[in-house]
Amino acid sequence: MQIIKLNAIDSTNNYLKQLLMDTALEDFCVVTTKYQSKGKGQIGAEWMSERGKNLTFSVLKKNPPVKLPRQFHLNILVSLSIVKTLEHYSIRKLAIKWPNDILSDHHKISGILIENQIKSNRIDFSVIGIGLNVNQELFKGLPKVSSMKSILGMPINKDELLHKLINNLQIYFKMFSEKGKDIVNAEYESYLFRKDKPSTFELPDQTLFTGIIRGVTDAGKLRVQMEGATKEFDLKELKLLY
Questions:
Q1: Which of 14, 58, 86, 141 is most buried per CB count within 10 Å?
Q2: Is-cis flag, bond preceding 155, omega within 30?
């Protein structure tokens, strides 16, 4: 396993993409850092992490077995890999909050940001950014956030954790290549936060409504049942409130 360890960087996703321009890298090459000054989340959000306490890293996946416009399957594979890794450590009440937050008992413990390089109408490579709260215990101003140490009451070896997670990524990508989307789709939806439960949603104009999550489409849209009809929403079209 090719692992590049850094003390500090603005963003492991940015570093890995830049490195790819003039360096031959292995499939599943990892760039990890003790501190990210500009860690990225969805829609421009920042991923805040205490120096040296957590896992902040990016993984290169060459020629992912996912076709356009169904690249959301990458989120599914990565989310399941994280969940299975956390289950190995006996983290309780795990759920995947659409589109790509990993929760433990309603508290965020991990986030994902995937950036794809498109070439000739296919995904040439993906840079998979993962932030996982490991040994940090204080999250100032973030009441809905937790970590593995906070949950388990003991510190976690980050190197061992990283290797287990990458191994699970390789397992899930292999499973997808050999068995197709149906098996991973069903597993993803079994962990989907608030599935089949009445939930409150917010539209971009701040309108609130109640609906029931019924699943996710191959394109990554959330299927929400509302007033007898089921509608599909993209990431920028809907916010799920706790």
A1: 58
A2: no
